[in-house]
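Students often ask what a holo structure prediction actually looks like on paper. The answer is less mysterious than it sounds. You provide the chain, you provide the ligand, and the output is a string of discrete structure tokens encoding the 3D arrangement of the protein together with magnesium ion.
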Amino acid sequence: MSAYHPLNAEEAIQLAKSIPGRFPDHAELECREIGDGNLNLVFHVTAKNTADSIIIKQAVPYAKVVGESWPLSLDRARIERVALETQYSLCPNLVPKVYGYSDELAYTVMEDLSEYTIMRKGLIEGIAYPKFAEHIGEFMARTLFYTSDLGMNQQEKKVLAGRFVNPDLCKITEDLIFEDPYRESSNNNYPDHIADEAEALRTDLPLHFEVALLREKFLTHAQALLHGDLHTGSIFVTPESTKVIDPEFAYFGPMGFDIGAVIGNLLLNYAAQPGWSQDEYTQATREARLLEMASDVWNHFESNFRMLWNDDLLDEMSRTPGYQDYYVSQILKDTAGFAGCKMIRRIVGLSHVADIDTIADDTAREAAQRKALAIGKNLVRHHRSIKSFEDILTLIQQAT
Ligand code: ADP
Ligand code: MG
Ligand code: MG
Ligand code: MG
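The corresponding structure tokens follow.
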């Protein structure tokens, strides 16, 4: 079973049995493939009559996009696994445990989180996650601080960065987020009723200028090890607990890209609320809760990050008065800009979000699409002048 091929369910069971100590010796195992079928296979292996279970995630060498095949390096399975292990070592409560892997077969065996809900689904159902902001703020502060030149030896950081050279997955981001929405592209995907918006995006040169600056950061600013795909579909939640999965886009990039992913996805759900809430009171409650959550995500990130800086900084130059404030203020600007880019691409680009696309009513869906675009564009346009999270909230209000 060593040369690469996509596993079948029987092979996944054999593999599960070979993981020491995972299942009782004579357990009868069952397997189901539960992935969404775009990029990877996900096998759920359970033992009959017990609670024992594991997940095996295997990369396939192509992405299925609009019926076509997009070749993708299998090395991303190694990158995802090393990222999971790195993040687990920094935040063991917030990341699934890795039990085994094969780089050749491009799979990772990990903790089964089936008791959790994918956050995007939970948010669509209107569920509150009162601990989420605290958890994700801690996750981002710790993973970003300890893999940056602030919390890591600068030579060791360069060596670690060498394990995260991820050109194929970075190209997906570069094309789908920073390129396609701003020009004619066969990758773009939007309904005719918002063709006016798509056209406006293609000709808005002041907006292109801000996107070009953010793209430059994504391409060149190797600030810390990013998760790289930290949307609400990569986060498992319960009201008490949070686990971050799916870091196959991990690479060394700008911290604000991860924070912006979380906040941009909360704002996509916010923009969708008129399509989901049954009455005005519910809508107002959920909208307020989502804005407070976005704000708390930033606040928890910032307080944890400053605490780590004050307690665990490795070098002297970074103690220079004013530098911490400057550094954090830059992360906030980047966060707003990247959040905006992510909102825009989820409306006109290749890959959308269920928060908006599954709104049943056509008028409500179109209103949500326009609202998300208005917020996204406002954040991108003004990201460099943002000084506090209040400024972000003002830009959101002005757009709606
Ligand atoms: P992809 O990179 O293909 O998006 P994900 O890692 O996001 O793959 O996994 C796809 C789906 O598989 C998830 O949305 C979830 O339903 C399921 N899944 C992935 N990892 C786990 C896990 N550790 N425990 C339970 N379910 C999982
Ligand atoms: Mg997927
Ligand atoms: Mg995923
Ligand atoms: Mg993925």
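The chain has two domains: 9-111, 117-398.
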